[in-house]
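quick one, two chains, predict together pls
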Amino acid sequence: MSLLSFKTASISASVLAATLLLTACGGQSTGTSTDPEAGLSGSVTIDGSSTVAPLSEAAADLFRDVEPGVNVTVATSGTGGGFKAFCAGETDISDASRPIKDEEIAACKTAGIEYTEIVIANDGLSVVVNPENDWAKCLTVEQLKTIWGPDSEGKITNWNQVDPAFPDQELSLFGAGTDSGTFDYFTAAINGEEGAIRTDYSPSEDDNITVQGVSGDKGAMGFFGLSYVEENKDAITAIEVDGGEGCVYPTSETVQDGTYQPLGRALYIYVNNAAYAEKEQLRTFIDYYVENEAKVAEAALFIGLTDEQKTKAQDELATLVG
Amino acid sequence: MTLLTTGLGAHIRSASIRGKVKGGENSARSILFLVILWLSLFVSFGVLLTLIITTLIDGADRLDARLITEFPSSAPERAGLRPAILGSIWVIGVTAVLTIPLGVAAAIHLEEFADRKKWINRVIELNVQNLAAVPSIVYGLLALGFLALLGVQNKNIVIGGALALGLLVLPVIIISTREALRSVPVEIRQGSLALGATPLQTVWRQTLPASVPGIATGAILGLSRALGEAAPLLVLGALVFVSFDPNGLLSGYTTMPIQIFNWTSRPQAELHELASAASILLLGILIAMNGLAIFIRNRYQQRW
């Protein structure tokens, strides 16, 4: 019996030791994080689009080198989910891959939340095909709509239906799933109505799966952010898009100057005005974010702002503290 | 056909299972069954091995100190898991503190004191058994609803995550504790009672200490399952990026599986590499925890 209790005691002791170890680790971390060297402290909470999140993460990452005492958190509830939290006053900044919608404006107004919209980077959607595809170099928006429109469901299944000059090659389609800002944006830009798209394509929230799908099928076509094209140059080829004023290849420059239409877009952050005026750490963070947008955009594989966009953002922020 | 099966049978017998296949078990059907068993073992083990090896190859380059000491970053070369590791420790630690006493107490009640003839106790038993098989995301939804009911605005805090994972771990702990209690011979209880101990003293001084190895094993296995979970935490709106070390029950946090999930959804190949390295680290921790559970079981378990 004494042996038994000895064993029991030693187990209890080791469990206790493990618990103490956990506590010790925790205690240690408390020390490092609440010990800013005479810098700012407090928190900055960001939620919203998973498209924009890499930008905010990159900004927070760079900001840590400047103000290590400020706790920046980024969550990805999606643009809509982000606005829900933002308009309830739960977050300081909302990442958005589209401008705020009317019903979201109303929600913010009801809750008494005033905000400022800032264009923080530019993003291009690219239409991609298999590298072996040697016929589709440039497609018009009309042709893209023929391929992707809701009316084409089950009917347009071959490239030669898009243009008789195209070969007899079966069409297989990959793209963003309905939850992503990319999906909202592509459907609005190409099919004229947000959410309108044929349902017989392979949707995925993970753009890497789209890359795999398109690279594995000669007749495949897909769409996603421009950064994925540059990261996966060997596997897929981006095509030119004719938005009515000639064929334009998606590059940083054509997106930034607005010539790559209609698939070039701006990405936004929304800032809570009251919080911006009150919280010094938020103010410092946003100012840093906008000031270093080029570095941030590069780190997050997006396209930076034009001088004009940057000046506009800085001017608007300046009025908030007045 | 007969020739083939006898040939196969002879072959199988010669391979390490001699003695297990005896007499009537040496029929064509039982040999076929054995072949299927070996095949399924081979397939599942092969898939696991392939997965581990490819992950190891992908992540080997980044399996270094930076992974543990650095904060996450968009610059892959300076990115690490530090807040995620600390976040995991915090959340799992709080989960353990919340669930182990509660789970053990519930199991003791159900096993030692509850009247099994009452329908309510049978319903509770049935529910505990069922809960252990519920998909983890459901616990996330439950915790989300619970926190919303309490009026908690910011749900991605350590205590919130610990609640969700606690719900997940609780049935495992209850069931394993009951198993452990059940394996303590009734003679020990009777002996204790015969010497004049009260039922409570019997549980506290005899039954419970004797079942600690089983409880510890179950708790570690339950917690290691919780450590690998991302879904219930994502439902709570888990943070994908945290630039600081979590430092309390109300602190924001991220955990290793969430960080891995975040990295794999990025376009940069380097971040995928990092995700692989992080997966290996997580796998290592899980193997260590399970190893500890096996060690405790083998070292301390009583054979009555």
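Confidence is low (pLDDT under 50) at residues 1-9, 11-36 of chain A.
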